[in-house]
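Open question from group meeting: does this chain pack into something compact, or does most of it stay loose? Before anyone orders reagents, we agreed to write out a predicted structure and look at it together. Recording both the input and the output here so the notebook holds the full record.
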Amino acid sequence: MSKPLKKKIKRFVSKVLFNPVTQWVLALLIAGIIWFIFLTSKRKITDKKFLKRYKKEPVVFVFFHGRSVMLSPVIKMINIPAYCITSQHADGHMMAKLQRLFGMRAIYGSSTKGGLSVLRQGINVLTEKKVSMCISVDGPSGPSMRIKDGALYFARMSGAPIVPCCYSSSNGRFLNRWDRFLIPGLFGTISVNVGDPIYIDRNISDEEFEKKRSEIEDIMEKQLRDLDGEFNLYRVERDLTATEFKKQMRKK
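Structure tokens returned:
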């Protein structure tokens, strides 16, 4: 296939995906698949009673990009009001519609585009609206399993704690992507772990800030390794980026 033809196809697909009607159709389809997998699986959720306290107490839920899909029905099932951060691209708008079906509203932006606006909106959500935030800390393009500043800033400026979340699956399939996105199979076991709340002092020094980031990264990695260890899953790599992963794939 020639490059001009590839570009035309790419533009056409982007145009279709950016159409709100198409996005709602896809969102409904994906939500249906997620619910079907979730409801036909055996579910293990650590300390559900403890998780329910966050219906009234705003927190910053954090998770790795590759472990997001099965956390949405957990949030919906317990009926925790929350906002999620999503990109301003076409796929971000589609994901916002998908999350809306799980009861979550969107804040558009990222660490590289609209970051200051996202920070202001997020702090307002946590402090004024008293509603939780959901953030994939290594998204949208890596490096994998590394925490960007956003979640820590939200916690630092609002006083809301960071709560690490992760899931794994007995018969999951890893997508061939930088984030090793995990999709559970049907009729398996989905294990969800919600960690203890972690507070960030508002007056923390830069050195202590970096130390806290490292501590949370270690906690989240252990959380993922322990869950995957239950099912003897593939060991997900750290530090992969979308750009580097694409380069690796071109060389093969």
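Observations to bring back to the group:
Residues 176 and 249 are 10 Å apart (CA to CA).
DSSP finds nine helices and nine strands in the chain.
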